[in-house]
Amino acid sequence: MNPLALLGAWRWLAYAAIALAAVLAVRWEYSRVDQRGYDRADAAWRLQIAQDAAAAQETARLREQAARRREGELVEISRKVEVNYAQTKQRAASEAAAAGDELAALRSVLDDRAQADAGRLGAGGAACPDPAASGRADAARTERQLLGLCAATAVGLAQEADRLEGKLTALQEWVRQMLAPGK
Questions:
Q1: Is residue 166 domain-resident?
Q2: In this structure, how many other beta carbons lie within 10 angstroms of the beta carbon of residue 162?
Q3: CA 115, 118, 121: angle at the middle one, nearest 5?
Q4: How far is CA 37 from the centre of its chain?
C-alpha cells in the first residue's frame, strides 16, 4: 500500500509548507544576524575612519603650529642678523672715517714737513747752494709721496676688509642660527 494514500495529499502539502516556512525562517534569521554583523563592522570601520581623520587633522594642526613657530624663530633670527650686520657696517664706516681722518692728519704733517724743508732750502724755491741738501729734499719728497700712496692703499684695503668682515660675520651668524641644535 502507498503511504501517501493514507495521509492524504493535503497533509503532505501542509508538511511541505511547514518545512518551507521553517527553512525560510531560519534563512531570514541568518540574514538578520549577518546584517547586524555587517552593521557592526561597518560602524566600527566608520568609527576607525573618523578617528584616523581626527588624528590626521590634529597632526596637521600640530605640524602647522610647529612650522609657524619655526618661521617666527627664523624671522627673528634674520632680523637679529640684519641688525648685527647694520651695526657692523656702521662700525666699519666709522672706523673708515677715523682712518681717513688719520690719513688726512698724516698728510697734513707731511705737508708741514715739506714746507719746512722748502723753507730751509731757500725762499721762493731758490736753488740751494749745497747739492747734498737738494738731494735730501728730493729724497724726502719721494718718501712723502710713497708714504702717501701706501697710506691711501692701506686705507682702501682696510675699508674692503671691513666690508667683507661685516658680510662674513653676518653670514656666519645667520648659518649658526639656522643650524642651531634643537631648532
A1: yes
A2: 19
A3: 155
A4: 55
The length of the chain is 183
Is 30 a member of any domain?
yes
Mean pLDDT, residues 47-71 taken together: 95
Q: State the total domains in the chain.
A: 1
Percent of the chain past pLDDT 90, that is, above it, reads 22
Range of the domain at 55: 3-178
Residue 158 has pLDDT above 70, yes or no: yes
- How far is the CA of 83 from the CAs of 97, 167, 170, in angstroms? 21, 12, 9
- How many CB atoms lie under 10 A from the CB of residue 11? 11
Answer whether residue 130 is part of any domain: yes
Direct distance between the N- and C-terminal alpha carbons of the chain, in angstroms, rounded to an integer: 100
Say if CB 167 and CB 82 are below 8 A apart.
Answer: no
For 20-39, what is the mean pLDDT? Answer: 90
Cα dihedral across residues 137, 138, 143, 149: positive or negative = positive
Residue 140: which of 120, 114, 160, 122 has the closest Cα? Answer: 114
**Alpha-helix residue ranges (DSSP H) falling in the chain:** 3-7, 9-121, 131-178
Given a cut of 90, whether residue 176 has pLDDT beyond it is no
What's this model's pTM, rounded to 2 decimal places?
0.45
Is 183 part of any domain?
Answer: no
Is residue 57 scored above 60 in pLDDT? yes
